[in-house]
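Chapter review: from sequence to fold.
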Amino acid sequence: MKYRLLLGIIPILLAGPAMAVCSVPQPRLVCAEYFASKVVVEATLVKVRTIGDEDAYVYSLRVDRTIRGHIPGVFRVYEENNSGRAAFDWKIGRKYLLFLWHSGPEKSWEVDGCGNSGPLSRAKAVLEQINAIDTHSDGGVIHGRVSEYAAVVPVPVVRVEARGANGRYTATTNSQGDFEIRVPAGRYVLRAASFDTDPFSYENPRDLQIEPGGCVQVQLAPRSQP
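The token string follows.
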């Protein structure tokens, strides 16, 4: 029954170019994407260029306000026309809130199609969460989920441990397979018996950096048998 459920969900994830195949767990938390992004910016779309037979797009944008990091006044965002595309529409003259990382091969910036980037007119709640991030805090939160069968079936009552220079911190997954561990700022390794990193996990649980006021998101799956 579990496998039939999984086979029914995978085609939905791959249904069309406007629906992204997402990393997990979802939804993407603002506090996690903010610190994982090299740049967070408000910008206006000024030009769209198509590559090939609509195989990819390059969006040229003008910076209106830089919230995090450093970026030129005019920059480009590269986006392939596949299941990783952003769920929102790009329109010339529209303002956007963008969480960006830089792609070396494309020499352009990219966005997570399943993240919090989108039109600025719909970003009020996201901006409020950014403004609420307390960078003077002495710690942050490890958010995670333990599941099996391609992140479809949650695994409750799993003990998860985070180890770092500041000590050891534990939590147990709830009925949805979710857990939270509040820890001091620093670097941590996350472990759970019989579970390892899900291939689509946002962050690597073996190398987690907690910034003051920040958070991370990880997904664990059953360890492969030799």
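Two observations follow directly from the output. The mean pLDDT is 90. The domain at 30-132 is CATH 2.40.50.120 (OB fold (Dihydrolipoamide Acetyltransferase, E2P)).
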